[in-house]
TrEMBL record:
Residue stretches making up the Peptidase S9 prolyl oligopeptidase catalytic domain: 445-648
Entry-linked InterPro entries: AB_hydrolase_fold, Pept_S9A_N, Peptidase_S9_cat, Peptidase_S9A, Serine_Peptidase_S9A
Keywords, ordered alphabetically: Hydrolase, Protease, Serine protease
Any Gene Ontology biological process: proteolysis
Protein name per UniProt: Prolyl oligopeptidase
Pfam families attached to this UniProt entry: Peptidase_S9, Peptidase_S9_N
Family matches, as Gene3D superfamilies: alpha/beta hydrolase, Prolyl oligopeptidase, N-terminal domain
A GO molecular-function annotation: serine-type endopeptidase activity
Presence of the UniProt keyword Protease in the record: yes
PANTHER family from the UniProt entry: PROLYL ENDOPEPTIDASE-LIKE, PROTEASE FAMILY S9A OLIGOPEPTIDASE
Amino acid sequence: MTTTTADPFRWLEADDADVLAWQRAQAAAAAETVGAWPHLNVLAGLLGRLGGGPPPVLPVPAAGRWFRAEGADLIASTEPLGPGDTVARLPAGERAAWLAPSPDGTVLAVGIGQGGGEENAIRLLDTGSGEPLGHGPDRLLFDALLGGVSWLPDSSGFHYLGMTAPVDRFEQAIFRYDLRSRTEHAEPIPRPSPDYTLVQAGDGRWTVAAHGLLTPLPVAVHDRADPDGGWRPFLTSVPGVDGPLVAGYPIGDEYVAWTDVGAPRGRVVAIRFDADDPGDPSAWRELLPEGDGVIVALLRTRAALYTVELVDGRWSRVRELDGAGGRVLPLPPRVSVRTGVAALHALARPGSAPELLLPSSSPSRSWTVSGWRPGDQVPRLLADATTGLPGAVVEERQAVGADGTLIPYTCLYRPDERGQRPRPTLITAYGGFYRALTPEWSDDAAAVAASGGLHVWAHTRGGGDLGREWWEGGRRGRKQTVLDDLHAVAADLVATGRADPSRLAVVGRSHGGWLAGAAAVTRPDVWRAAVPLVPALDLVTDLRTPYGKYVTELDWPDGDAEEHVAALSPYHLIRPGSYPAVYLAAGDRDPRCPAWHARKFAARLQEAQQGPGAVLLRVRENAGHGLTSSAAERRRDAAEWLGFVFAELGLVPPAAP
């Protein structure tokens, strides 16, 4: 059945001159409204002083050196973050989306961003001269999630996931590029799909194609020792399991992986490449049984394997695996280790590193990078925190969900001489795609706390915070549960006197942007302000686009029944009435949540708004989903949307001492 809801703002889906003029007028109005708040410059200064930024981008190892980008300079050093030599310099205006040095260290593949979006081109540089090699693949990559290219162990070439059509069609395939002949061909990997596929060349004979961004499976394998052999299916399904996660690395004659099959919190297993039935879990060799923590990543170095686990849905624990089950690394308490945006992304880290690099932070202390080698007694500090929030309180709490389930949430605030009191409160949540929302350092969270407010991370169902069952509890037909959990957290904050009920705001990015938009239109009585950032808000139209259909099939109601999606589509839920103040932000080059989502929602809500709250829209030109934004761009954007929230909640940022 097709939904026939009237859509008076369909014209805003186009990217023509009329829409651009309307969009720019909206941006000017947003800038004027926020700019009239007298404390905007002070807030921008506070964000600059906090300046802990996003998690650091880790260097990439090859041939005894570590490669990293510092602005336009491409640096190689003998220590992961130590001083080094500039091996190449990018032309003015170019930015490296990713780096991938060849195993012998002679060639550096670099992803060059295209016009502010996520798509990027492959450039090959000679690390000796710094000059381009003058050849390489012509096709673009959709994004940088898989680290660009996957080199063959002998440095003769690489595999990559390239686009086979314009970006809006979301069509990709695996290609192999030969460095010597300067030719490429599409790899005939079994079970092609629009989902992501990562090729992993092991140190031995086996190359594996792992398919699936959220729940990877090693769907195909190639024996490099057999010159006449091709790709053959390996683990394409597990009987009785919908979307099993089996994410790992080819090591020797086995695929060593973290899996949620038979273990909702995760375990580590080894599957032989010559197994009669790789999909039979009873034949898998267990290396680490399910424990009390939730495994969120399996990382590999040259010498060891490590699991990154979540304890109580919040804090990270890292375990070095050995024959006895593993040793827990002595990290500081209550820190969050950043591993990647999805399971397949974490696997894209090169496994040849001599040392495990761990970027970690806490809500009150910005990012550090630590190094660890087997046999170490303590991690060595490679990069210390640049800022923090001394004296801040980090509080762990639980709300009772609509069905009686306990929903964790984490609070950050600064105590004052008056003690605990209801505070202006900003809640952030995500609640989707098996991704955990960890309470890590955030400049905007720290700014809220530094200004006398309360910042809250709501660990709703739909994410991976508490394992597979937590994801399934807010997935597909249970999506309403994500909204219910968010509102349960808001209610608990008010009931316990932590939050001022008249000064509650919600912010979310991407899937969290859907959540913030849905909260604003379904429970407008709860919120003073809502900020959907790079959101998907018209789910019905999204179903009819290639990327939107792909995402829907991952995490939303199954099938072609648009009425099921429309019931949770914020754009379609708007009716004339009183709504909170809303600030929407998007990028006009965003392939994941195109700007028309925010445009249509803003227009419809502006027409329907009968309350005093402003509805503002800022579409950044030549910008994408935020994954490639610089620290300066992030601070610029945060100053505007956070200034909007501060003005609504009555927060005043502290001036520089």
